[in-house]
Write a structure and sequence with these properties.
single chain; 314 residues; Aminopeptidase; 7 helices; 27% helix; 16% strand
Length: 314
């Protein structure tokens, strides 16, 4: 049985960096590849589980509070934004270069995002944590979002690469895999979503804010080497790809976007993704995008420095 959790925000703020502690021994270079540039060697500890406390289930009969995104402002207190934690404890997604499941990265970033949005007045924002195997959990997410009459769905993920691109290395005495070839964020939308235009609009707002912070987008999805993971690039400036048949984007009744926040199979970027600084950049970018999507006044996006812009363009 698939169990859906709509969690109240108030769970522990302990982060992924809390899993990383300095090694008592000097870093050892990998056996098959050069060690990443890093200030300290993080150790893996037991992953934190989602909080067991449940909020009341959304009322399927409650009428939606839909915003006219391009025509009028929404009421932030009533705007129903669902932040979906990609993957599940049972099917935890990609494994990072340091053997931490993607689900844990997704959960922590999503929790921080919901905390931020609530603090900015989006009181109806909810965190969606799904249990079960991979494919059934996708349908469960869609059912939860549709029954709750969400106005907008954002699914949080962290990126990897196809297995054929992996290289071996040893981390903390344990064999692992990495690929330092690609990095950056990616945004995905489905043209089969019933509100593709609004999905695309929201993705553009996120991408614009990410680039303004100097974060590059992952441009590898157009390459033949990606095989079945290859996707059409819809907007190079914002870093948006087309992923028509992804269930969580295709079958939801509201605009939906999937964000790959960065690559955790890239050894250097994994350390960045675990840092509060990079998480804050992503959380602030998405929060500003939500405000813009809702038609609220926001402080103009910062103008990136030449170095930051060059980094984002690479």
């Amino acid at each position: 049985m698939v169990v859906l959790l709509l969690l109240p925000i108030g769970v522990s703020n302990a982060g992924i960096m809390d899993w990383f502690k300095r090694s008592s021994k000097a870093d050892k270079p990998p056996k098959q590849a050069a060690a990443p540039k890093q200030a300290a060697s993080p150790n893996h500890v037991a992953p934190r589980q989602a909080a067991p406390e449940l909020a009341s289930r959304p009322d399927a009969d409650e009428k939606p509070t839909l915003a006219k995104h391009a025509e009028s402002k929404c009421d932030p207190a009533k705007f129903r934004l669902l932040v979906d934690v990609g993957h599940t404890v049972q099917s935890d997604g990609a494994m990072s270069a340091r053997n931490i499941p993607e689900f844990q990265y997704n959960l922590h970033l999503a929790q921080r995002l919901v905390d931020k949005l609530k603090s900015e007045g989006f009181a109806a924002t909810r965190l969606l944590v799904t249990e079960g195997k991979a494919r059934p959990s996708l349908f469960a997410r869609v059912a939860s979002a549709n029954n709750w009459h969400a106005d907008l769905l954002l699914s949080i993920h962290h990126d990897s690469v196809p297995d054929k691109m992996m290289e071996d290395w040893e981390f903390e005495g344990k064999k692992s895999h990495y690929s330092d070839r690609f990095s950056g964020y990616g945004l995905f939308v489905s043209k089969e979503n019933p509100d593709f235009e609004s999905s695309m609009n929201f993705a553009k707002l996120i991408g614009t804010q990410m680039r303004a912070q100097g974060i590059k987008f992952a441009d590898q999805y157009t390459l033949p080497i990606m095989g079945k993971y290859r996707h059409d690039l819809l907007d190079r400036d914002a870093g948006i790809y087309r992923y028509d048949h992804l269930i969580v984007l295709q079958r939801t009744h509201m605009p939906a976007v999937l964000l790959e926040a960065g690559s955790i199979i890239n050894r250097d970027e994994e350390l960045q993704m675990a840092s509060p600084e990079r998480q804050d950049m992503t959380v602030n970018a998405v929060t500003t995008a939500v405000k813009q999507f809702c038609g609220l006044p926001v402080v103009s996006a910062p103008t990136p420095t030449p170095d930051a812009q060059a980094k984002a363009d690479r």
